[in-house]
Amino acid sequence: MSGEEAPTQQHPPEQEKKPDEPPPAASDAPQESCSSPAAEEKPLSWRALVLTGFGGYDKVKLQVKVQKQPQLQAGEVLVRVKACGLNFAELLGRQGLYELLPAPPVTMGMEASGVIEAVGEDVIDRKFLCSVRPPTNRLPVCSLLTFPPYAVGDRVIVLSRSGMWQEVVVVSANCTFLMPEQMSFVEGAALPVNYVTAYMMLFEMANVRPGKSVLIHMAAGGVGIAATQLCQTVQDVTVFGTASASKHETIAQGGVTHPIDYRTKDYVEEIRKISPNGVDIVLDPLGGSDTQKGFSLLKPLGTLIVFGAANCVTGQKKNLLAMAKTWYNQLSLTTMKLMQSNKAVCGFHLGYISDEQLIISTMSILLELYSQGKIKPHIDSCYHFEEVADAMRRMHERQNIGKVILLPEPKKEEEKPKPNPEPEENVEKSEAAVDEKKEEATEEVKAEKD
């Protein structure tokens, strides 16, 4: 996975049409020039969510794309996508604040799960010598990871920098991971970004170990729940988690030792009441003044990891005032002050991790932890592609607890309930009652005249 080239290799569509237009007839399809006999073949048609410009929810359009059947390059696979993950990066990308996203029009989406429909040449046994750090072992362990060749029908997870929000993707086989049998497509799409992020921060950067304490902001979000579950794989780790009060029961059940309502209480004071010396690790996706608070909460030799700037995003469109406020209040340190404080400050951005073997080894560990029942993505809600605005709105308004998933399959129209026809008996009774009332009314009028 290199910084210059996105791992998802998308072929430009020959034709693009609106969702309500029928696909072209098979006779219009281009001819294949491969090993198959020359014959007219129906072109490939698929639905995709395309960012057409920067701005609000309306900038993400559902489109149907059509092109000839793709010719896979060596090492590539064609995947039919069944579920996609929605991440905070896509919210930033829609506002033009995610620098790794190509300029619009572009298909967003960093993770998906699906079924392999075609395999290119040279997709053979893949062997990687990886240095991994299992949660139960502080020291890295060198191991040779071997992945068998793929076959059509295999269920896989796909991790990329963009391009996953569509029904069909062509990617390098090295960007895919075989799903455990018991894992659903929804869980597969929910795992990569959140859990790889949480794992690398906790075990590769902060070196969490028994007896330590961790502050997890946005503890009810995708990364927050992933980090909480991973902390449970290490003995005696105390977790402080910030979230609105309505989410406390869920995150407490998930492993947060001390839930804190950041909306009504000062979380710094609440943590000091329980742990006067502060915490060992702070995972900060907020930025601005919260980064300063996190640094002040660190114990000596503690680690602050900044991995986002959620305080910049306050609505569906770019908020320049919020951005300026976050920038003005950001943490500023000199190396001398850092040295004297005996604390560490780190930054993490999954999009800039170019070490392919590191990604592969981390995913291998996470899939094993899933198979052992030690981690399990918490799914908040699922939305069809037609409902992408509702999905983004739910995350923008901080309503989600866990992962929000997008489903490529078309949403089925809900059948309107038909009124139950009244039995003939009831109809006759109703008519008789009406006649009886008419007779009574006539009698009353006659009595008044008399």
Strands, total number: 19
Helix/strand/pairing category: alpha/beta
Low-confidence stretches: 1-39, 441-450
Helix content: 25-40%
What Rg, in angstroms, do the CA atoms define? 28 Å
Distance between the termini: 100 Å
Q: How would a crystallographer describe the biggest sheet?
A: 7 strands, mixed
Silhouette: globular
Relative strand content = 15-25%
How many helical elements?
12
Global mean pLDDT: 83
Question: What's a quick, concise take on this entry?
Answer:
The chain has twelve helices and 19 strands. The protein is α/β, with parallel strands linked by helices. Strand 18, helix 11 and strand 19 form a beta-alpha-beta unit.
Descriptive overview:
The longest helix has 26 residues. Helix 3 packs across helix 4 and helix 3 packs across helix 10. With 450 residues, the chain is an alpha/beta fold. Strand 7 and strand 8 form a beta hairpin. It has twelve helices and 19 strands. The chain is globular.
Give a quick set of tags describing it.
12 helices; alpha/beta; 450 residues; globular; single chain; disordered C terminus; disordered N terminus
Chart the SSEs and their pairings.
Elements: E1 15-17, E2 44-51, E3 60-67, E4 76-86, H1 88-94, E5 106-107, E6 111-119, E7 126-132, E8 141-147, E9 155-159, E10 168-172, E11 176-178, H2 185-190, H3 192-205, E12 213-216, H4 222-231, E13 238-242, H5 248-254, E14 258-260, H6 267-274, E15 279-284, H7 289-297, E16 298-306, H8 320-328, H9 335-341, E17 344-347, H10 356-371, E18 379-384, H11 388-396, E19 403-407, H12 424-449
Parallel strand pairs: 12-13, 12-15, 13-14, 15-16, 16-17, 18-19
Antiparallel strand pairs: 1-3, 2-3, 2-5, 4-6, 4-10, 4-19, 6-9, 7-8, 9-11
